[in-house]
């Protein structure tokens, strides 16, 4: 058992599981929140585009310098709720010009100005068709954004002013078609793949164990019926059935788990049946029964230790199948849109034209995430299989 | 030859049983939809006359058993009624799409099977060499990489970044004139989808064949072949590979449902004009007759290929003709 | 009068075949035998002669189609399930295939001690393990490392068979049924095992020893019965079966068995080719 | 004549290397039956398999195996292939499935004939029928599949296949294991008579000393990788030299109730 804990796949799985549990608390941005303009690229890409940023002025900070080596932003937005002691103006000093954005009177001022408002354009005497953001941020260099008193006395100010600049870049992995942060979506996606993958396979294995044991032990009619059923289920395409069921029944996570397990227990049933048949006929089990050993004893002392490793290997190898099936159904857009999953992310990337923008950073994280999880469970499955018969270890090495 | 006949009859009977189960499943699948069946079967948007005609067509007022028999007749005669979305008969829709799906799946399956088998055999023959490492890794790839992810990537690279292949569709619009032009155009559209399926599929085949071949090569009759002074090539292909064929066909059998299910995803990613994508559109568009018919066709395709592989199995493996082959 | 341990009266067993077109086969036809305490009987026959089925009928593992078996004076067909268990606890059974006769996941010593633990419970564990160790030593398995290795990996075919014999003897059975127990042994260990079994028979254990080798039968048992396709074709002391066989099949068995002594008489090799027997 | 001179075979496994045969010398003249007797694991099968160089790849073989004047160990692959079955044929163990399950028996024999002897098709067909009859099997078995034959029939088919290119030497590796006593007797007799009739040399490997004593002209006894005894059956039984043989003979005679 100890060698399992040193296995890379086990450690990585542990790390991912912990990550997905801690995610809701630790992430600064919640996955559903729209944080930046849609399709913004990750920070480490297309450096000439300005990142989306939020500059705030408050009581003791009335001036902020902004280094601006970028192209002009796409949108700007000014909002604030402050009380002033002295009449002053909200000013943006560019390297060559100076713009008065808004006049502030004494006392309470609340304002919410968007770069596209006509009145704002007229006040700055630009033409109604002008693009305010590219006018204001036309040059690269040092900008200053401050509250400038009309007369010399420095004003006291309470409340905050926020200057939202919507740029083309955001965060570690950019944003999706609704402006949500892809990185937090990606972390949130882990939960669904893990839950669906593991619980669907567990449920399927239990079903398989149940049917396998019955047809193995009972034999005769029940055996033929169950095995005929298994043959039939194995010879029809499962995804179309899953699609229909998922579309009309299984909107929620747990319905999806149920549907997936209903159509993936056949493999385990077959292996368990083969195992029970071979054990049932072996003479030492017959001998033990002959000596009056209770069935529970036989099950606990002999059947379980022999079938357990095979069952665990079966489960580990089944998880990738379930993860891919869930991802497939969500990719086809048949899963519940409120649930964030990697398949869903890929669906939205595909149907909302990630292509026309060449937004490969929207595709890679969920895709590689699914692949990584599958590789982890494949490795765990291989490890468990090697416990059952050691020559398997040799077979792969030589 | 008589045992061969009886074996074949058993296989055909088996397939008919599967077909019957599929029909039952299909029949109940759409009648168990949430909401009352009549409403689901008749699209409210339809005019009263169409509704009356349709309900007569589906015999919705009759008892369930009668409906089932009527349904059976319709399915067998491929008369699937009208699609809610397009108003044309479902069969017309499917008839144009079926050949695309078959060419897509057929070519992908054959290519990945042949490539995989050849690679698997070479990996088993040259143990420890780099070819074996490739097979081991490509096996892991085909079991873990989600098909739609790889396909999206391929599209991004070979259709968007380097516009080598078309971004979408089975045929370019407006379609070129002339049979050969249309054929090459169609093939040009199929290269990326088939390529992606082969890329994803051959690894699984290669790994299976490699493991099987390693086991067969350690058998006594291979050692006896060497003892008989037969050249290595002859032993590998006439003895080892011949013994490999039956289990190889079993892998083919088991992989079929998965591959046909995969058609839905591939056709959606590449927006190909196929049965799979039609099924998806029918489901999302609540168009039940089309959804039911598409599922029925996909299931029929699987059963048909299953039967073909089963009959081939009887020829390839002499042992099977005698006792009932428990799969 | 020493009490009879086992009587089988006209025991027959019919196996119906799964395929309706073919009728079933009679594995056993009217086999009768009586075994007293301290007596040993050799069952001589080839594979398919029904010897294994007879042992399983005697142990009540399968129901005979007709005839009955009395074990320690009780008819196994009519007695209650509980008393059948009690009867079986007085018997030891060494099955033919050494690979199916031992639990693979247990260690060797556990596998031998297990029957004792089932019958007398875990509290007499120390007793069970010392008995098991002693039995394994007498049967030539002495290496300590081997005792604690898993049955599945550590044992050769011959060792596995000896462990199966030890497992059958742990309960000090009053009747031992063994099916070709020395088939995997080479010549020297074969006679050692037979000596161990014969010593037990002298101490009052009755035994049924199944083999296809008449010389082995004579070494292991005083009385012998030859089985051919489920029927008893000859029954006699093993000595006379060897020296004066009556039934054609027994004659063929004796003729077919190569022996060193016959090989070294010069003429025997030339006439080897003449006395053909076709069953 | 096949001469094995100071042959040693070691099996190299990752954990340890095992000495299976330790400079054994043995010669198999034409027209004689040589018995090689030993317990399981004594290296007798490895010695037999070394002759046509059929040992697995993780073995090291030293010494010499001469076929008349040719040293088999140093032969190139394709000359070795011409010798295999043309000069030296192998009869497999009774329990081994030595025929490819998907090919008929006839196909196996035809195959060997086409590769080793230039014969027109009808001559090949005739020859197949002849060797089958010689091995005691009806020609109709030619188009049967291996799984349709009983153990005894399979061994007879193996003998027929071995005779196909009328080799000068036969190597029989425990040909009658897993067969019942009467069939074993018939197979051994067929093998012995054929060897004598066709003046072939037969190396007969078995763990059953009495069986070897029945048909062999000379017997070599192997124990833990070494040939510890050589001689005619009489010498082996009357005055064995090695302790192991003495014990073996004593146990066997005791069993047969013959105290000499």
TrEMBL record, chain A:
GO biological process: transmembrane transport
Keywords: Cell membrane, Membrane, Transmembrane, Transmembrane helix, Transport
Domain ABC transmembrane type-1: 190-381
Database matches in Gene3D superfamilies: MetI-like
GO cellular component labels: plasma membrane
Main location group: membrane
CDD domains registered for this protein in UniProt: TM_PBP2
Keyword set includes Nucleotide-binding: no
TM region(s), chain numbering: 182-213, 225-247, 253-272, 310-334, 355-378
Keyword Cell membrane: yes
UniProt xrefs under PROSITE patterns: ABC_TM1
Protein location: Cell membrane
Membrane topology, record value: Multi-pass membrane protein
PANTHER family assigned: D,D-DIPEPTIDE TRANSPORT SYSTEM PERMEASE PROTEIN DDPC-RELATED (PTHR43386:SF1), OLIGOPEPTIDE TRANSPORT SYSTEM PERMEASE PROTEIN APPC (PTHR43386)
Protein name (record): ABC transmembrane type-1 domain-containing protein
């Amino acid at each position: 058992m100890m060698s399992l804990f040193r296995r890379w796949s086990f450690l990585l799985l542990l790390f991912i599981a912990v990550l997905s549990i801690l995610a809701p608390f630790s992430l600064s941005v919640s996955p559903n929140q729209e944080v930046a303009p849609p399709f913004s690229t990750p920070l480490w890409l297309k450096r000439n585009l300005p990142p989306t940023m939020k500059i705030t002025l408050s009581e003791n900070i009335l001036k902020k310098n902004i280094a601006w080596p970028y192209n002009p932003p796409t949108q700007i937005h000014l909002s604030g709720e402050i009380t002033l002691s002295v009449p002053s103006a909200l000013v943006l000093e560019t390297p060559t010009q100076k713009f008065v954005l808004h006049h502030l009177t004494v006392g309470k001022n609340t304002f919410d100005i968007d770069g596209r408002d006509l009145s704002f354009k007229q006040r700055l005497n630009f033409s109604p068709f002008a693009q305010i953001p590219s006018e204001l941020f036309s040059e690269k260099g040092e900008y200053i954004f401050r509250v400038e008193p009309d007369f010399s006395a420095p004003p006291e100010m309470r409340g905050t002013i926020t200057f939202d600049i919507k740029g083309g870049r955001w965060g570690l992995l950019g944003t999706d078609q609704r402006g949500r942060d892809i990185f937090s979506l990606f972390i949130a996606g882990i939960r669904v793949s893990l839950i669906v993958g593991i619980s669907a396979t567990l449920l399927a294995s239990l079903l398989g164990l149940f049917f396998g044991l019955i047809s193995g032990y009972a034999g005769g009619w029940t055996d033929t019926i169950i095995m005929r059923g298994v043959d039939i289920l194995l010879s029809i395409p499962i995804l179309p059935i899953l699609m229909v069921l998922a579309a009309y029944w299984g909107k929620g996570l747990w319905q999806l788990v149920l549907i997936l397990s209903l159509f993936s227990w056949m493999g385990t049933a077959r292996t368990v049946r083969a195992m029970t048949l071979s054990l049932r006929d072996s003479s030492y089990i017959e001998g033990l029964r002959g000596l009056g050993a209770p069935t529970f004893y036989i099950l606990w002392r002999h059947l379980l230790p022999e079938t357990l490793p095979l069952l665990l290997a079966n489960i580990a190898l089944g998880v990738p199948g379930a993860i891919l099936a869930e991802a497939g159904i969500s990719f086809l857009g048949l899963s519940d849109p409120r649930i964030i999953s990697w398949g869903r992310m890929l669906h939205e990337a595909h149907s909302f034209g990630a292509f026309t923008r060449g937004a490969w950073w929207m595709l890679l994280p969920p895709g590689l995430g699914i692949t990584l999880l599958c590789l982890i469970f494949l490795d765990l499955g291989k490890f468990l299989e090697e416990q059952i018969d050691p020559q398997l270890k040799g077979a792969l090495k030589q | 030859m008589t045992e061969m006949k009886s074996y074949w009859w058993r296989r055909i009977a088996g397939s008919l049983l599967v077909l019957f189960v599929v029909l039952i499943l299909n029949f109940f699948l759409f009648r168990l939809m949430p909401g009352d069946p009549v409403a689901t079967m008749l699209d409210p948007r339809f005019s009263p006359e169409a509704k009356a005609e349709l309900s007569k067509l589906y015999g919705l007022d009759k008892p369930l058993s009668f409906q089932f028999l009527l349904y059976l007749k319709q399915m067998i005669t491929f008369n699937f009624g009208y699609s809610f979305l397009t108003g044309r008969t479902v069969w017309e829709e499917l008839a144009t799409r079926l050949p695309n799906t078959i060419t897509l799946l057929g070519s992908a399956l054959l290519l990945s099977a042949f490539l995989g088998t050849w690679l698997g055999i070479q990996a088993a023959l040259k143990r420890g060499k780099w070819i074996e490492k490739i097979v081991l890794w490509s096996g892991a790839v085909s079991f873990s990489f989600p098909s739609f992810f790889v396909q999206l990537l391929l599209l991004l690279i070979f259709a968007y970044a380097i516009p080598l292949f078309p971004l979408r569709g089975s045929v370019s619009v407006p379609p070129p004139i002339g049979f050969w032009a249309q054929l090459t155009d169609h093939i040009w559209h199929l290269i990326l989808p088939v390529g992606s399926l082969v890329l994803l599929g051959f690894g699984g085949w290669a790994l299976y064949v490699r493991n099987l071949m390693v086991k067969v090569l350690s058998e006594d009759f291979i050692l006896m072949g060497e003892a008989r002074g037969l050249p290595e090539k002859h032993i590998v292909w006439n003895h080892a590979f011949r013994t490999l064929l039956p289990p190889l066909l079993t892998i083919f059998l088991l992989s079929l449902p998965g591959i046909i299910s995969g058609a839905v995803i591939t056709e959606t990613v590449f927006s190909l004009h196929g049965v799979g994508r039609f099924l998806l559109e029918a489901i999302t568009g609540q168009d039940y007759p089309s959804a039911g018919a598409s599922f029925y066709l996909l299931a029929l395709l699987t059963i048909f290929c299953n039967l073909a592989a089963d009959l081939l199995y009887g020829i390839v493996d002499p042992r099977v003709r005698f006792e009932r082959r428990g799969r | 009068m020493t009490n009879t341990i086992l009587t089988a009266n006209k025991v027959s067993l019919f196996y119906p075949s799964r395929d309706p077109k073919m009728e079933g086969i009679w594995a056993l036809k009217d086999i009768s035998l009586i075994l007293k305490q301290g007596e040993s009987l050799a069952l001589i026959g080839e594979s398919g002669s029904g010897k294994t089925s007879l042992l399983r009928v005697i142990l009540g593992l399968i129901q005979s189609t007709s005839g009955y078996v009395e074990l320690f004076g009780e008819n196994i067909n009519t007695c209650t399930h509980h008393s059948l268990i009690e009867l079986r606890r007085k018997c030891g059974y060494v099955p033919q295939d050494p690979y199916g006769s031992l639990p693979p996941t247990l260690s060797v010593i556990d596998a031998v001690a297990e029957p004792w633990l089932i019958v007398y419970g875990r509290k007499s564990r120390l007793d069970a393990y010392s008995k098991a160790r002693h039995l394994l030593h007498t049967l030539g398995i002495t290496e300590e490392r081997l005792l604690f290795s898993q049955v599945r990996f550590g044992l050769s075919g011959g060792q596995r068979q000896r462990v199966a014999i030890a497992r059958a003897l742990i309960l000090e059975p009053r009747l031992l049924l063994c099916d070709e127990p020395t088939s995997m042994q080479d010549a020297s260990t074969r006679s050692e095992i037979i000596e161990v079994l014969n010593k037990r028979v002298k101490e009052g254990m009755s035994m049924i020893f199944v083999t296809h080798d008449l010389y082995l039968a004579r070494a292991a048992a005083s009385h012998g019965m030859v089985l051919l396709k489920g029927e008893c074709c000859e029954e006699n002391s093993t000595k006379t079966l060897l020296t004066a066989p009556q039934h054609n099949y027994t004659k063929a068995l004796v003729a077919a068995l190569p022996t060193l002594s016959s090989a070294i008489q010069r003429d025997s090799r030339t006439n080897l080719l003449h006395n053909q027997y076709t069953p | 004549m096949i001469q094995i001179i100071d042959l040693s075979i070691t099996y190299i496994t990752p954990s340890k290397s095992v000495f299976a045969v330790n400079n054994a010398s043995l010669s198999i003249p034409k027209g004689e039956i040589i018995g090689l007797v030993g317990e399981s694991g004594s290296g007798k099968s490895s010695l037999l398999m070394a002759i046509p160089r059929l040992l697995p790849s993780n073995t090291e073989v030293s010494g010499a195996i001469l076929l008349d004047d040719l040293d088999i160990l140093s032969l190139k692959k394709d000359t070795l292939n011409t010798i295999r079955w043309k000069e030296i044929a192998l009869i497999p163990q009774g329990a081994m499935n030595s025929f490819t399950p998907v090919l008929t028996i006839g196909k196996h024999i035809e195959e060997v004939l086409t590769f080793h002897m230039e014969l027109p098709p009808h001559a090949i067909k005739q020859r197949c029928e002849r060797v089958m009859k010689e091995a005691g099997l009806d020609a109709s078995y030619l188009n049967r599949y291996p799984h349709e034959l009983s153990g005894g029939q399979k061994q007879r088919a193996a003998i027929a296949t071995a005779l196909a290119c009328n080799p000068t030497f036969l190597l029989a590796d425990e040909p009658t294991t897993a067969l019942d006593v009467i069939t074993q007797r018939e197979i051994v007799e067929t093998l012995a008579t054929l060897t004598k009739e066709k003046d072939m040399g037969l190396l007969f490997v078995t763990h059953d000393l009495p069986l070897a004593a029945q048909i062999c002209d000379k017997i070599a006894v192997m124990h833990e990788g070494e040939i510890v005894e050589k001689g005619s059956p009489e010498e082996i039984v009357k005055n064995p030299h090695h302790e192991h043989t003495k014990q073996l003979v004593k146990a066997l005679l005791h069993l047969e109730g013959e105290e000499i």
